[in-house]
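Internal ticket - ligand job 260, zinc ion:
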Amino acid sequence: MAYCAETLRPRNRLLQSLPEDELQRLGPLLERVSLTPRRVLQHAGLPIEHLYFVEEGLVSVLAKVDERHAVEVWLIGRDGVVGSTALLGDRISTFGHLVQVGGSALRIGIEVLEHAAADFPSLRAALDGYLHEGLMQSSQSAACGLRHPVLKRLARWLLMAQDRSDLDALPVTQDALARSLGVRRPTVSEAFKQLEQHGVFARERALIRILDRASLERIACRCYRAMRLVRDTSEKPKTKRRVMALSLLWILFEVELAAS
Ligand SMILES: [Zn+2]
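stdout (structure tokens):
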């Protein structure tokens, strides 16, 4: 179903950032699709055919570590878009993209977008900013996996998932979290018990309801602050980015000090 900019406002933050005239031109080229949990939006090693602007839900970007396992290096919610690496010129996806929390997206064909690129200068600038954010996030995520304990990484993941989905209750299982964090299920279960003892969330059937976000932020490793700052920076005008980049460098220095 084609998306009509006049009747429906996008929930995706990249699309929301566009000027009204550009959004009006883009609307007829967008198609709304549902994101069912566990759907593979993009396989690693295959050509990227669409960009998916996430409206609701969460998509994990997964890097293969061996023939059977993959680890999450990036989490995309309604702040972002799936398939943006195609804009770097390589249509073959390095990573797999798996729907972690179901929802919906607005998609556009890569060739359609490239054909009409001159009509969407603001969109291109927004996508470039998001690509930069993604590269920073995936690098920080890799460093986090090497140096920080699972309890702190789990707290970070829950905060990031809430930021990107705006959900108070996250429909994620411990099996899915173990896959995302690249650890065994018993390891995640132990970290879960410790977080429950802090009273930061409650389990409601298949939902994790966050009750005390401030405590969760205190428990999370400093990578959460670093990643949030990267995200905030990409949304600011260039004049503010330099100051925030210096803040980011300081946080990364603190992360290294804390881990050493
Ligand atoms: Zn970390």
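Auto-summary: The chain has a mean pLDDT of 86. The beta strands are 31-35, 40-42, 50-64, 70-76, 81-82, 96-109, 169-170, 201-204, 207-210.
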